[in-house]
Write a structure and sequence with these properties.
heterodimer; A: mainly alpha; 4-stranded mixed β-sheet; 4 strands; elongated; B: alpha/beta; 6-stranded mixed β-sheet; two-stranded antiparallel ribbon; 9 helices; globular
Chain lengths: 393, 243
Amino acid sequence: MNRLFRLALKELRESLRDRRTTLTLVLMPVLLYPLLAIGFRALLVVGKSTAQGPEYLIAFDDEAAGKRIVGMWNAGLPEQAPVHFTPPPRLKFLSGSDADKALEADMLDVYIRLLPEAEQDKELLRFEAIYREGSYRGREAVRYLDLLTRRANVQWLARQAGKAPPVEMLVREREASQQQVSAVPVLVPLVLILMTMTGAVYPAIDLTAGERERGTLEILMAAPIPRLYVLLAKYIAVVTVALLTACVNLGTMAATLHFTGLAQEVFGEAVTWWSLLQVLALLVLFALFFAGVLLALTSFARSFKEAQAYLIPLMLVCLFPGVLALAPGLSLSSFLALVPLVNIVLLARDVLAGTATLLPSLLVVSTTLLYALIAVTVAARIFGTEAILGSGT
Amino acid sequence: MLAVDDLSFEVAAGEVYGLLGPNGAGKTTTLRMLLGLMQPTSGRATIQGYSSAEQPDEVKRRVGLVSTSAGLYPHLSVREMLLFFADLYGVEPAQARSELDRLAELIGLRELLDRRCLTLSTGQKQRVNLARALIHRPPVLLLDEPTLGLDVLGSQVVADFVTHLRSQGKAVILTTHRLDEAERLCDRFGLMNKGKLVLAGTLTQLREMTGRGSLVDMFIDLVKPPPAIQATWTTSSPRSDLP
C-alpha cells in the first residue's frame, strides 16, 4: 500500500510540476467564471425583459397633448392589464429635430407628433406615430400603441352609448402544474464537470501515452512491480489532479456567484456551503469515473498525438449528454440516472437547487461507481501490454 | 510474424555477450522476452535459474535494462528519478542513497543530481540511464543499443561502464550497430538475422567459421541481399555476314 502511495506521489509530482497542468488548474477557472458571470447576467436580463414585455421609449412633440393621449390610453386599459403591456412605456417629450436624431440613433422607439391644427377635428385628436424604417422595436411599439388607441376609442364609444363593450378579452397567466426548470442552473454544474474533465485530460495522456513516447514505460514495466499497481498509481494521480481542478473551479465559481449576486438569480436562493460540498462529492464521483475512461483510452495510444486524437471524439461524446441535460424541464428519472454524465449534471443541478431526492441520488452514485470500476478494469487490461510496449524488434 | 526463431545462447557471469544483427533481426524482442516483457510462443529463458515466463518479478529484480529509447521523467530531478527506481526495485532507502552516491561518483553524476532531467543533454541523460540500470545492483545487464545517438565522449562513457560491469562480474548482453565497438567490448558474439541466430562464438571462432577478418565483413555477408539483376556473359566472334 505504501509503495502504491509512493508511486502515486511520484506521478502526481510529475504532473503538478508541468506548467500545462497548472495552467488548466489555476488560470482557466480564474478567467472563465468572471466571463461566464457576465454572460449569465446578460442572459438573465434578456430573460427578464422577455417575460415582462419590452419597455418602449416614446416621445411626444407636445407635453400637454402627450399627457392627454396617455390619459386616454390608460382609461382604455382594463383593470387587469395583459402581461405584455407591462412595464408601461417610458415617456419623453422632445422637439421634432431632436426626435429625428433620437430615432436615427435608435435611442427612441416611437415619436408621436400632433397633426397640424388644420387637420384636427373638434372632438378628434389626430396624431401620427413615427418609427424608424426597419426598426423591429419601433414597429412593435406602434402596434402596441395602435391597440391601446383602439381600446380607448371602444371604451369612449361604449361610455357614449351608455353600454358596456360587447366583447372584452382579459389575459391571465396560469401557474404551471410542473415546475419548469430553466437551463441556466444546469449550465453551472455542466461547466464544473467540463472543467474537471479538462483538468484530467492532460495528466491522463502524459502519464500513459506520454510515458510511452518518452521511453519511460518500458523501463517502468521492466521493474518488478505489478502492472496493476503502476496503473492504479496513475489513476490516483489523474483523479487527484481532476479533483484539484474541480476544487479550484468550484471555489472560483462560488466566489463569482457570491460576489456578483448571481446565486440568487440563477438558483432562486443563495447557494449554501452544504450544497457546495454535495456538488464537490459529485465531482469526486465524476472524476473517479472519467479518470478511468481516460486511462482506458490513453493507455491504448502509442503517442501523445494519438491519445489526443482519441480524446477529441470522447469529449464530443461527453458534450452530447451534457447538452441534453440542458433541455428545460428535464428531470432526473430512473432511466436518466443510469446515463453517464447526464445523471451527474442533473443531480448536481437538483443539489444546487435543493430539490435532490434520495432514490435517484443513490442510483446515480452506484451506477457511476460501477462505470468507474469497469473503466479501470479495461484500462488495467490494456496498460503496458506487449502490444502497447513493442515496436522495436 | 515470427520475430525470433530457434534462438539459444548462454551468458556467464563476468562475460559480455554481443547480440548483433541488422534492423528487424529480433534483438530487442529477444531482450524483451528475457525480461518477461513479452512471452515467447515456445521455449524458455532463465536468468540465475528463474524463468522469465513463470517468475518475471524474480527475473526483473536481477536485471538492469538500458534501452535504445529509454527516457527520463522530465520534471523529476536526477536524484528523485534514481531513488524512485531504487524504490521500485525494493532497495531500502538508506542503501539506495549510498548506492546513489557510489554511482554518482562512478558515472560522474555528482553535479547533475539536483537538476531536472528536462535540462540534461543526450549524453548526460544516457549516464543517468546507466545509473538507473545499476541502482539495484543487478547481476545481469541488458544494454540495448546503449551508444545510439551518442558522440565519441558519450560512447566512451558507455564503453568504460561495460568494462566496469565485466570487472564487477556482471553478465552483460549488449546489442549494438557499432561493430567496432562490439569487437572491443564483447567476449562472445551472436549474429542474428531474420529472427535466427546464424553465427555464434568468440571473435577468433567467428573468423575461423567465416574466413572473414572483421565483424563488419561478417555482418555484410550476413545482410547482403541477392543481386537484383544477374547476367551471364559469353564472348563470341563478330558475325561475318554483317556488313
